[in-house]
Amino acid sequence: MLLTILLLALINPTTSGRIVFVTSVATQSHVLFLSPLIEELIERGHQITFINNKHPMKKSIVDNMTTIHIDVNPQFISNLTRLIFEEYRNDPFPALLHLERRNAIATCRTFVANDGVQHLIRNNTRFDLAIATSFVEECPFVVAKLLAPRVIYVNFMRHILSPYAHAMSVPTPYSFVSHLTLFTSPMRLIQRFTNAVVSFYHSVSFRDFDSTDEILENLVHDAPRIRQVRDKLSAILYGGDPVLSEAVPQMPYTVAVGGLHCRAARALVGELKSLVEASGENGFIYFSLGTVLETSSVNNATVRAFLDAFSRLRQTVIWRSAEEIDGLPPNVKIVRWAPQQDLLGHPKIRLFLTQGGLFGLQEAVYHQVPVVGFPAFFDQFANLKRLSDLGCGLRLDLFNLTAELIHSSIDRVINEPRFKACMVKKSLVFRDQEQSPLHRAVYWVEYFMRHRQMISAENPTGHLNWIAYFCIDVVLFFPLCFLGVFILAKRIK
């Protein structure tokens, strides 16, 4: 048996290869999610080139990694948060599409015109594989295809966005697969109707971004069309996991790797260690608005409500904020940066206050920490609804918070054992996987490097129009046959 395994390894080994990661508007959380995958590939001897918008990694200086930094629309994120709080507070999803329509062309032009990217393209630099991400805009896909024959897309959500699902022939029935809505199965008629409209609107909106094809044609000779690249993806790695993702249809090359960034907590050091140890038996609460939303984006009344609620708590509150906050109660400590997983994995933690980003919630599940969340935009609403439906936390409205509501919610989640028990139970499910998400991601990256003849995943529906796909012709065929037999029988009589 051992001899057979050794022979198979010799027949088709995965030799070290050249891989390029292509991102444009990547938030810090996106880079933190990709970092373990990049570091593992480096450890396995692969040569990595990382194109991103100035979010450094701790291994960016190693010999077998090259980083190309890009300044892409530095006001993108700040404009997004302003739109959410000033114009789209009741319906944040259009804010992202509205902002992206205005920025897609400028983002694409800046990205492709970058000296480092142009150097790779003009010198016909070739990689064995490209791994591309996007923040709605899709320019990185074309650059990825110009640099490598095979492209893997990383989707940072717990479900695959519908345009990419359709490209990979993943069935996404509107009847039970939620498309950026808060509906869960079983859906009522009006919910299915709304779900279908949102999905259609989302798909049509993505076609608007194909206008960046003109920019690519002017900057790059023989650039492929964005839709052509999307339809020829080799695989999709997405942020799905066994707890926060509902059961939905999948295809062989759509791979859930949610939680690949989760790890065991390390010992705290310095001021944080002293602060946590001083919290005593009451423990501490960790509060973070994520890597996109800053404290200054939240109106002053809401910030004061948080401080008022915190002042009534027995627990120490560690608030991660890049900005100083006036009038802090004695039990509240502001830190500009915090090792989030080391705090979530500490035995003295009692609660995680979060905006509901997927990666933070996955870390909370992994480390068995109950949650009180207040979503701000995009998938955060659905993420927190899923967690609250499971009974592992509470979801509040960020735009209608009061000190009493914040305090009562925190007190309830900390003191009712069912929330902690839920997280303990779900954490066991989250961790109990045949293969770790990180090793699963590495396997599929190296799979397409071993099988170089596989350019893209097979698309069994690529040749079907919508009439054939939904079998409308079949549905019409039977009554027509019946009608033909009926007419023929009548004439014979």
Walk me through this protein's architecture.
The chain has 493 residues and is an alpha/beta fold. It has three domains: 14-258 and 443-451, Glycogen Phosphorylase B (Rossmann fold, 3-Layer(aba) Sandwich), CATH 3.40.50; 270-431, Rossmann fold (3-Layer(aba) Sandwich); 463-492. It contains 20 helices and 13 strands. The protein has helices spanning 2-11, 28-43, 76-86, 93-113, 115-122, 139-147, 162-167, 189-208, 212-219, 226-231, 270-277, 300-311, 340-344, 358-366, 380-390, 403-415, 417-431, 437-450, 466-469, 472-492, and strands spanning 18-22, 47-52, 65-69, 129-132, 151-155, 235-238, 254-256, 284-288, 316-320, 332-335, 349-354, 371-373, 393-395. The strands form two sheets. It has a seven-stranded parallel β-sheet with strand order 3-2-1-4-5-6-7. β11, α14 (358-366) and β12 form a beta-alpha-beta unit. The protein is globular and about 90 Å long. The protein starts with a helix and ends with a helix. Mean pLDDT is 83; it is low at 4-12.
